[in-house]
Structure formats: C-alpha cells, structure tokens
Amino acid sequence: MATTITPATLTVKTTETINIGGIVHEFTSSFQKTGVTHISQRQMNIGTGSFTEIVNFSSSVSPGTFIDDDVRYARITNLDNANQVVMKLNHKASGQTFYRTIGRDSTESFYSLKMNVNTTNAAMSGAVSDTTSVFEVSMSAVGSGYSSPPTVSFSGGGGSAAAGTAVLDGNTVKSVTITNPGTGYTSTPTVGFSGGGGSGAAAKATLVADALWTPSDFYNFDSISAQASGSACDITVFIATI
C-alpha cells in the first residue's frame, strides 16, 4: 500500500531569557511554515582556503539539490565555538554573489530563496551595511629567522578589534589564524608583524561584508557555499520543502 505523507506545519521559535537581580526577563517570537512534506538535515565539515558547495537549488531534484520553488525554510548552524563560517549565496545566471558571516555557535536562517543584487565580496546594492570584518589573512611573504610566533596587528581600514595569531613552520610564518574578525572596516586594514626574533613576514587581509536585506532587486539564488575561517568547522544544514 502506498504511503501518504500528510503536509505538516513547521514552527520556528526564538527565545531570549535573562535573569537580572532575581527577575527573569523573557521574550519568545515564532513563525510557521505550512504544507511541509519533506525535511533534510545533514552535518558537514567545512574546510578553509576555498568554498565548499553545501546545497543546490534548481527546477528538478537530484542528490544535494532541492526544487527552489518548493523550499520553505533553510537553516545553517555553525557548531564551532572558536571559528566563524562565511556563506556565499550564488546566482549563477547573473554571476552575482552575496556573502554572509555565521559567527561562533550561531545560526543563519532563510525564509525565501531570494537575494539582493550584489557584487563579489561587497555590500549589497541598496542595502544598509551592518558590519564588515576581517575574514582571512593571506601570506605574501613568510619571512625567516622566527624563533617564536610574532605579534600580529591590524591598523587602518576604519574598523577596530581585529586580531590574529601567527602560526610558524620552522622559522617562517606559515599562516595567521583569525581570533577576532573585528567590525566596522570600510577598507582593508594593514597587517603587521612584530617580535618573534625574525623579519620579513608580510600578509594581506581579506574583508567580508555582512549586510541587511532590502526588499528591492531580488533574484532567486542557485546554491549556497561555505568556508571556515581559522580552522575547519562542523555545520548542520536543515531544509524544509513542500
């Protein structure tokens, strides 16, 4: 006998609770998506250095691909408590992309598979900038003679609080691990190295912009890719469709 799946209602709740001076303050908001007949949930390990495609959207179903018009809700959660994850939303037909940072132990949810027009690694057209952070540091020179990791500094760029630690390979600087992406950068800060007994290390920072969506100039996007900052991260991907 054939199995019939009865459409269900997905309820998503957000609860804020804090106890100050013995008084509990709590607020709960929720919304519902009706007609859901299928869900998919996966846990994945996302590496550094390049973007990994984690989900595709198209007009037909195939492994890892969902029908875009059927998706009612998508959630991506960063399970790592030390490193952030950057998502890249792609609109392949136009070549437009939109970057969004998922912080440590944080979640990003989508209620519509639409994105605003954007150019690579820039704030969206017509959107209000929320924060621009240091995503990664690329070594342009590894230097020599380092007996201990040099101190890494970020200067200029209009922002603050970016921080990182140098990783040695022998007596050279192999890489920089971002420990705090900072906020408010309007241009790329200068990366500096001091101490450690060596010299010659040089690097360049790459920014990633978080932006707020606006209701104009939207396109359906085709896929979501992700890349970890610092070291590999585990994420969960949840999709609900009709």
What's this model, at a glance?
This protein folds into 2 domains: 37-127 and 215-241, Jelly Rolls, CATH 2.60.120; 132-209, no CATH class.
- CATH architectural group of the largest domain: Sandwich
The count of strands amounts to 19
Widest beta sheet: strand line-up: 5-4-18-7-8
What's the total helix number? 0
Which percent bin holds the helix content?
under 10%
N to C succession of SSEs: EEEEEEEEEEEEEEEEEEE
Return the domain count.
Answer: 2
Tell the overall outline.
Answer: globular
Low-confidence stretches: 115-131, 210-218
CATH topology of the largest domain, anyone? Jelly Rolls
**Helix-strand makeup class:** mainly beta
N-to-C span: 22 Å
What is the CATH C level class of the largest domain, in words?
Mainly Beta
- The mean pLDDT is 81
Using only CA atoms, what is the Rg? 21 Å
Strand content: over 45%
Largest sheet: 5 strands, mixed
Describe this structure in words.
The structure is a single chain. This protein is mainly β. It has two domains: 37-127 and 215-241, Jelly Rolls (Sandwich), CATH 2.60.120; 132-209, no CATH class. 0% of the residues lie in helices and 62% in strands. The chain is built from no helices and 19 strands. A five-stranded mixed sheet has the order 5-4-18-7-8, with no helix packed on it. The two termini are 22 Å apart. The model is unreliable at 115-131 and 210-218 (pLDDT under 50).
